[in-house]
Fold these 4 entries.
Entry 1:
Amino acid sequence: MKIYRNEHIERLAQDRLIELERITGKPLAPPIPIDLVAERVLGLQILWENVDELPGEIIFGAIVPKDRLIVLNERRKTLFEEKPGLERSTKGHEMGHWDLFVDKATLDHPVLFDDDDDGPFALRSCPHGEAAVLKILQASAEGQKLLREMEARGDEPDEARAVNRYAAALSMPKGLLREEAMKLDRTRWPNLYRLAETFDVTISAMCVRLQQLDLLYIGKDKKLFESRDQANGQMGLF
C-alpha cells in the first residue's frame, strides 16, 4: 500500500481545487463544490444505490473503480439528511480512495480492500457489483475505535487517515479556512458551529481540521483555545 505524508495529501487536494478554478473560471469560496471536483476534475460519477450491510454495520459510501463511480448508500439517506456535512464528507473520502490509492492504469484496487475482517475496509455488493467500502460498526467498541483513528491528528501511514485528511483538505482548504477562522473568536462554540455551517461540514470535522492547522486547541472539559501555544501559555499560569 502507498504511504503518503500529510504535506503530499494537502498539496494534491489543493492542486485539484486549483484545477477546478481553472475549469470554471471562478474563484473558490465556501462551501466548496465537492460534486464538481468529483465530476469535472476526477471524472467520477456519483450515484445513490443500496449497498449491502452485514448485521451491525453502517455503510455510508463505496467506490466502484472500474466504473469510475462513487456510490452513496440509499439505505442511509435519512442519516445523511439528519447530519449536515456527512454526505460531503463521505464523497470526499471516496474521492480520496480514488485519487490516492486506485491504480488508474489497471483499475486494480489495493489489497487493503480485500474482504478482510481485520481491517476497516471490505467489499460489499451493490447493483453495480462489488464495491470497496469504509465500514463503521454501529454501537461497537471497534466502530468507536475506528472513528477515533479517523479523526486523529497523527501522521501514521494509514489509508483511513490519508483519505480523511484528503476529504478535509478538499472541503476546508487551509487558505480559505484560515482566512475565515481568523475573523472569529474561536474560543466560543457558537462561532465554531457557524464556521462549520459556512463550509457545510460537521462540527466534529471542523474541530479536527482547525486542530490540524493549529487554529484551535480543545482542552479539558472542552475548554477552547485559539492555538496549542495559547493553551500551553494559559495553563502555565496556574
Note: Residues 6-171 form one domain.
Entry 2:
Amino acid sequence: MNELLFAFGNLRSEVMVITMTKPTLPPFHQKIFTHAKSAKVATDIYLTKNNPFRPLRPLREQSAFTLIELLAVITIIGILAGLTLGAAGAVRRHGANSTAKAEVAALQAACDRFFADNNSYPNNSAVNPSSSFAPTGYTAAGQALFTNLVGSATLTAAPTTKRYLEPKPAMVYTNGTPNYFVDPWGYAYGYNSDGTNAPLIWSTAGQTTGGANTNKWITTWPKM
C-alpha cells in the first residue's frame, strides 16, 4: 500500500509539473524584427519592375531620351536622308542619260534605214545646235522627223508609208498633231539635216536656259 501511495505521489507531482509548464515565448523585440523583415520582403516584391500590380513607378526608373540623344539621332537621320536623296538623284540622272543615248542611237539608225530606201535623210534644217539652244523650239523639226520615220502623223494612226522606227510610248509626245519624239526630260529631240548630209540629233539633257553647255548634251556627233 505504501508503495502504491508513493508511486501515486510521484505521478501527481509529474502531472502538476507538466500542467504548470508554459512554452517559452521569444522576446518582444524578436517578434518586431520578424514582422519588419517580412514587411520589407513584401515591399521589395511590390516595387519590383516586373510587378504588374504596382500602380506608380519612381521617375528615376522610367527610361527616357535626353535632349542630346534626341539631337544626335535627328542629326544622323538628316545625314542619312541627304546621302540617300543625293544617291537617288544621281541614279535617276544616270538612267536618263543612258535612255537618251539609246534613243538617239535608235533615231540615228532609223534615219540610216530611211536613207537606204530613199537616198536622202528626213529634211529639216529649221534649227541647229549652234544657233538655237532652247528645246522648246525643236517641235517643228521633231514633227518632221516623226512623220518620216513613223509613217503617220500620230503614234496610234495606221502608217501610210514604211515605218522605220517603232518607238516606245514614253518616247512620243502625243498631245498634239503631228506627234514628235521627246527625251527622258520631256523635251523634243533636236534634229537638223539638209537631206544629203548625215543628220544631227541631240538632247540638251534637261537644259533649257543658261547657255548651250554642249558638254552635257547627248548627241550623234563626237564631243570635243
Note: The longest helix spans residues 67-118.
Entry 3:
Amino acid sequence: MNRIAVPLFDLAQTLESGQIFRYRKVDDLYLVAVRERFFRLRQSGGRLEFDGADAKFVRDFLDLDYDLDAALGRLSRIRQLRPAIAACRGLRIVRHDPWECLISFICSTRSNIPKIKRSLNLLAQCHGSVVSCGGQTEHAFPPPGSLCNLELLKTTGIGYRADYVMQTNRLCTNGMLERIAALPYPEARAELMRFPGVGDKVADCVCLFSMRFREAFPVDVWVQRAMLELFPGCGKNERQIRQFAMQTFGPDAGYAEQYLFHYRRMMKKAMGYGL
C-alpha cells in the first residue's frame, strides 16, 4: 500500500460522520466506494496507507491540504464549540462525487444513516458495474441517466424518494453539476434546489460535501437541537438558524456544522440511543 503523512487527521471520524455512506470496515481497513472508484484506507497515527486510488485523489477527497488547524483555531474562539472540537479533532470534510452525493442526500431525507447505507448499496447493486480492490468487490455508483426504472428503484427501500431520484436522474448531467460547482455558493445552492427532492438541507449537504463550499451549513434535526441548546436565540426555524450560523462562523460554518453534528451523534450513541 502507498503511504502519506497526515497531520491533524482522523480517518474514522471523517468517514463515519455522515458525509458518505458507501464504505465498510474490514479489520483495520476502510473500503470506500466513490462513483466508479473502489479503494482502501488505513490510518496508523500520522500516516495514511491506501491503494486503489492515487495520492492526488486521496488528498483531494479527504481535504488533506486544507489548513484545518487554522480553521479549528478560529472556531475555538467560540466557547460553545470547544467540546465538539476537542472530541472530533482531525475530522475533515470530504470532497465527494457531486452526482453520487446529490442522489445520496435525496435518499437521506427523513431517514437514518444505517438505512441510507443499505439503500444506496442496493441501488448500486441493481444498477452499477462490479469494481474490485485488494481482493474485495463492490459496485460502482450508476451514472446520470441510468436510474430510469421506478419499480427497481423502489426495491432499494427509498420509498417515495424513488420518484425524486428518477426525475433528478432525467434532468441532471455531469456537466451540469460541474457548472453548478463553478458558481458562487448562493447561486449554486439555488440551482441545486431546482432538482426534485432537493430542499435547503440537501442542497447545503451537496454544496459542503462535494463542491467544497465550506461556508454551507446544513441544518438537520441533530444540528438544530445543538444550535438551540448552545446558542439560545439563534432562530426559530431552520432558515434562521442557518443564517445565524453563517454570520457567526463565517467561512468555517461547514466545519462548525460537521463537528456539531458528529459530536451530538457520538454523545447520543454513548448514551445508548439509536442513530
Note: The chain has a mean pLDDT of 94.
Entry 4:
Amino acid sequence: MKFDEIKEIAVLGAGLMGHGIAQVCASAGYDVRLYDIDNAILENALSRIKKNLNKLVEKGKISRDDADKVIGRIHPTTDLKEAVKEADIVIEAIPEDINLKKKVFSEIDEIAKPDAVFATNTSSLSITELASATKREDRFIGMHWFNPPPVMRLIEIIRGERTSDETVELMKKLVKKLGKEYVVVDDVPGFIVNRILVPMINEAIRVVESGIASPEDVDKAMELGANLPMGPLRLADFVGLDTLLRVLETFREELGDYYKPSPLLKKLVRAGKTGVKSGEGFYKYQR
C-alpha cells in the first residue's frame, strides 16, 4: 500500500487509549471506524472526544467548525467486520493480553483488505508473536502510543521479525501526518521508554512500601530533584496500575527477577485501586 492511498483507519478499542488515538487520526483528516464490544463504551468515548475538542475550541487552538468535522469523521460501531472491512490501517488498542490480541488479529485477518496494514498498540508484548496470528507478518508492526494520545508527542514504531522495510517507512510517514514524532525500535520487551521508565516506577513503589517516604514526597523529590514533569507514582496512576503490573510481569518472564513487581503494586491492583480510571491508586481522583 502507498501512503497517499490511506483514507480510512480502524481503531479497535474505545477505552483510555483507543478514543484518543481515534481523535488524533480524525484530526489528521482520516475517516475513522472506532470499534468496541459495548455501545456504552463507545458513547463514553465520543463524549470524551467532544470534551477534549471543546477545550481546544475554548483555548482558540481550533475552530468550532474544525471540531465538528473531526467528530463527523469518527464512526462508532460494535460490528468488527464493519470496522475493518474497508480500513487501510487497523490500529489495535485493546487490553494488554497477548491471547486476546492474537485472537482478534486472527479474526480480522480474514476480514480486512489483503493490503491493509495491522498495527498493535502494546507497551510490552512481542510484535513478532502477535504477527504470527496473521498471514500478513510483513504488514504487521508495533505502534506504541503514550497517554493521552492527543497530547503526547512520541510514538514508538516497533519492527517485528518479519515486518517489511516498506511497512516501517509507511508507518513513519503516517506518524508524521498525525503530527507526532517517532523512534524505531527492535522487538524487545519494553522497547525504549518502558524499558527505562517501568523499573523506575517499580523502585518508587518500593520506596513507599518500605516506609522511606510518602507517595507525595517521592513524587515531589523526583519532580524537583530530577526535573520530571510528573512524579513516578502519579504517572503510575495515569498509566493504570493494572497495566503497569502486567508489563512488569512480562518483563520478569522475559528478562528475569530484577523486574519483579513490588508487593504493594500487586496489593493495590487486587483491591481494585488501579489509578485514575478507578478513582484511586496512590492518590484519589474524581470520576
Note: The chain has a mean pLDDT of 96.
